[in-house]
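Hey, I'm writing a tutorial for new members on how sequence and structure tokens pair up, and I'd like a real worked example in the thread rather than a made-up one. If someone can provide the structure for the chain below, I'll link this post from the tutorial.
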Amino acid sequence: MSRTLRTPEAQDSMRRFLERDGQSREAELRMGEFCGELSK
């Protein structure tokens, strides 16, 4: 995991994912839409 989070961009993406409850069941059920929201 640490190898995939080397860059500041990757770290920022992971932070946003976790801040928005990306590991919740609700987010997983609508992952396509959720990923689109994160990219904004």
